[in-house]
Design brief:
18 helices, 7-stranded mixed beta sheet, 3 domains, 9 strands, two-stranded antiparallel ribbon, Rossmann fold, Helicase, Ruva Protein, domain 3
């Protein structure tokens, strides 16, 4: 018999969460416990200033243990420890994908679910062909967390490297690696990780639930290894996803859009609600897929770094005309002449130009 079936709950979920004097990290985790287990006061008491402020000292683990048979005590203590000390760290931007249905939808979208279907030429999907099982690729997962998506990636039978910055979470992933020999766990910063060494000669596929505050630096780091990567799938802030896939002339089109579309072909697959994460972020998220190569493959630029600096200068004040933004690079007459040769207006702004048009203008003005 489930001991919680007959446990008397002293307060409901909603009033307890709304207590003004309850630390959020505690009330989110223990609002489900009976009052005789938690040792916390009733909601009416908690709402009185200076009375009933929950503290760790109020918690009575011996009462929780008493609700279970001795054979389960070890499991309960382990769960209690994880509940107390495996809290998401705000400084790391941790928002774990807790919803099982959304995990499966992502797994299907990135083709690591048994229900996935292999894509055919032209974007159509086969109703008969399964995914290839040839070990020519490897998966690199960034910010693996508790392994919410790691098991899905392992189902592909490809080698998987899970990168996790949080040491406590990396320890849990190493326990998972004991069950799956093709899983390698790397505890460290993705920005300092040697991707070619992890790939060991295989083509790379990447999945990551990226912290919103560091999405752009991670993308720039990965683009330096673009020649090794076939595709990348990221759960990121919806606004950032819109910037990656933005078309010229739209509000979201900017430097990050050009750089992304230079290296990859971005696609917003679907949006994910805040409620799918624990803790819920303040913004909505989206799954975005980047398939490589992008426009870069057709442009054949000699000096890509120089081109990206040109793009940054062109978009430094994207509402201004290129004639003004590029004054340090060429005289206005030369800029207007170059724009005219490309059938562009003399008052054109960089935000109106495609990646290919920016590359053509770069060649005319800088000769590379």
């Amino acid at each position: 018999m489930d001991p919680f079936c007959h446990a008397k709950f002293s307060h409901s979920h909603k009033p307890f969460r709304e207590s003004l004097y309850t630390p959020k990290c505690l009330r989110d985790r223990f609002c489900f416990l009976p009052q005789e287990v938690s040792g916390w006061p009733l909601p009416g008491q908690a709402l009185q200033k200076g009375v009933g402020v929950p503290r760790f000292s109020h918690f009575k683990p011996q009462n929780l243990i008493g609700l279970f048979p001795p054979s389960l005590h070890s499991y309960v203590l382990t769960s209690l420890f994880l509940c107390l000390f495996s809290m998401p760290r705000q400084r790391l931007g941790q928002h774990f994908l807790a919803d099982l249905d959304w995990r499966e939808q992502i797994a299907r979208a990135i083709r690591v679910s048994p229900h996935s279907l292999a894509p055919l030429v032209g974007g159509e999907r086969s109703q008969k062909l399964p995914l290839s099982t040839a070990v020519t690729h490897c998966w690199i997962e960034m910010g693996a967390g508790h392994g919410e998506m790691t098991r899905h990636l392992l189902a592909s039978d490809d080698p998987v490297t899970a990168i996790e910055l949080d040491p406590s979470l990396a320890a849990g992933l190493r326990r998972l690696a004991k069950e799956f020999p093709q899983l390698t766990v790397v505890s460290g910063d993705i920005l300092k990780t040697d991707l070619p060494a992890l790939a060991s000669g295989r083509r790379i596929r990447i999945y990551g639930n990226l912290p919103y505050y560091i999405t752009s630096p991670i993308l720039h780091h990965l683009f330096t290894h673009a020649s090794l990567i076939d595709e990348m799938h990221f759960v990121i802030q919806t606004e950032v996803a819109a910037r990656l896939a933005a078309a010229p002339g739209t509000r979201d089109y900017g430097y990050l859009s050009v750089v992304t579309q230079f290296y990859a072909r971005p696609e917003i697959v679907f949006e994910i609600p805040r409620e799918a994460f624990q803790p819920p972020p303040e913004v909505t998220s989206a799954l975005v897929t980047l398939r490589l190569p992008g426009a870069r493959a057709k442009l054949g630029l000699k000096d890509e770094a120089r081109f990206l600096n040109f793009v940054k200068l062109s978009l430094s004040q994207k509402r201004k005309m290129l004639v003004n933004n590029l004054r340090s690079l060429a005289k206005p007459e030369k800029i207007r002449a170059a724009l005219g040769s490309l059938n562009l207006r003399p008052d054109a702004r960089a935000e109106q130009l495609t990646v290919a048009e920016l590359a053509a203008l770069h060649r005319l003005l800088e000769g590379s």
